[in-house]
């Protein structure tokens, strides 16, 4: 699949447009290979991006082939897995939930979720990307898409979470893979993180600032983080969480299901 548009999809709106099948080799990008032999290219962003110019969700009617998919990205250690666990614990009694995790050479995040009984083991899949985590959620998302489609066929879930491997602030999901994109940063990284920008911070559908309980310990100002996040995102939604303690998780879930309701209503 890679960067090829998936049949039955089209953009509702989005100034960034759909990349052509040769976009990986376009001007302004660079390519490299990893030890595992896979070569891919990177599109170099012109800047941190604007929330109101992000790629918007695709209009699609193939929900029975690919369930509503939520991408959860963010740097290493920001709390992505903890947030996915908390969302599973919150939703699993009333909704059908599945998960796909991404790690480079291990199944670390899958094992964590399984150890903590996030869901039945069969409802969770682990993708070993073998290289740059962002490549598996944007440039060549075929492994993730295959797992999502298989889970959809088997369970017909209400929501499928794809947790990316930890990456930098420039990483973001392809709209052909994720209907709703969450980007997780944490207070422990310092209150400078939101103003550093990057597509994850500025163009995700929802920015989550996690580990708010650590603010005093690391000398970070939550007010500064929220103010900077609102400025960088042009008032795009921001939620403060303590995923490990379940704080703010219901608000995150509310954003997810509001987006799902709107997208499915538009596809009728």
TrEMBL record:
Domain CobW/HypB/UreG nucleotide-binding: 69-238
Keyword Metal-binding: no
Highest taxon of source: Eukaryota
Family: Belongs to the SIMIBI class G3E GTPase family. UreG subfamily.
InterPro entries membership: CobW/HypB/UreG_nucleotide-bd, P-loop_NTPase, UreG
UniProt KW keywords: Chaperone, GTP-binding, Nickel insertion, Nucleotide-binding
GO molecular function terms noted in the UniProt entry: GTP binding; GTPase activity; nickel cation binding
Record field: compositional bias (Basic and acidic residues): 32-45
Biological processes per GO annotation: urea catabolic process
Region (Disordered) location: 20-51
Protein name: CobW/HypB/UreG nucleotide-binding domain-containing protein
